[in-house]
User: What shape does this take?
Amino acid sequence: DAGVTQSPTHLIKTRGQQVTLRCSPKSGHDTVSWYQQALGQGPQFIFQYYEEEERQRGNFPDRFSGHQFPNYSSELNVNALLLGDSALYLCASSLMAGELFFGEGSRLTVL
Amino acid sequence: KQEVTQIPAALSVPEGENLVLNCSFTDSAIYNLQWFRQDPGKGLTSLLLIQSSQREQTSGRLNASLDKSSGRSTLYIAASQPGDSATYLCAVITSGTYKYIFGTGTRLKVLA
Assistant: This one.
């Protein structure tokens, strides 16, 4: 049983560019949440997708957008990258509001 | 607004010690509380999930308790080992919302 998988694992972008991160949830899970984790901090909630709709959003600007596909996989898009967007981006899947399972994350560096 | 605090921020203990990590939250109307482990640069590994109707959960050398009325949870690690060295995070989901709120974690180092 595959767990949560994320791609790419590492990427480097320059300011102003756009990035897309991908996530495949754990088998049987229908809900995908995205978190941003800065160094030394706890993960911060970006948004959650359920039934292909954004169900809840955290305090992140509109530059952060997402999508969920019919197979429950999800993408996180960040436009107009800033230096402060450098972080570990974590995808978590769950069944409704149940136990969260995380992927290994995508490490984004913005230069 | 739910806030989660973890104390201490860092802890260093000799191998074999029993230890307690603390997590406190400000809104007692929680749905779930979950403890995670994170190794440097890696994702989070789920350790224990406590539902709001439960008082504790156990898995191997780990035991987590929940006291909603006082807004506290503790993670007890028995007979600590160097392999337990990691950052431990707790997270809560408040009733009526869908997002887990995380603490900043306790960085544990177990010395051989």
Summary: Chain A has a mean pLDDT of 95. Chain A is about 0% helix and 50% strand. The two ends of chain A are 37 Å apart (CA to CA).
